[in-house]
């Protein structure tokens, strides 16, 4: 589900942020790209929360992942219509227009575009809204590995159907996906020894902490960086 917590600490959107470039059509979507292209490189798709691909922190994360040898894309799954910051009342109507089901269909087109460029190893990470898209990709086997960060819309049955290595990074303070639910995910995954999985709950962290933080808040940055490292380690192990 999506709640008001999904809207906490909204970013100041900036279409010029990041070290990468924006292309108008990548698998049919406007896309932020970090890292130089090489078909031998593994690729990572970062799937944003409801505030979309113009948020500076996810772009900075894409740049950081690219520095580790990945080709990174953040597609605009909302077609220029992200959730308006500081306007919680619009969330239900916005969600009706932008369900993760459509995001999953669009993500498959992005994967197709990567494969047409010669990329064979692809991973995906999803934040809040984006986590549901990633879990669907993990269920269909369209990616090599997935990471879910403070997920929304994901349910326990999804964990029974995931086909690729999956990492779940949850927050202690999260009414969207409470830690008790994350522990249910872990229980199901631990009962599937054939599947590589990693589940971690971050003490004191709130929903959205990995991408919605103030860069001047040292403690918040450190907590986000810890999750970023866990994500990158997972991709290095299972995608690279």
UniProtKB/TrEMBL annotation:
Signal peptide: none annotated. Residues 30-238 form the Dienelactone hydrolase domain. It holds the Pfam family DLH. Gene3D superfamilies: alpha/beta hydrolase. GO terms for molecular function: hydrolase activity. This is Alpha/beta-Hydrolases superfamily protein.
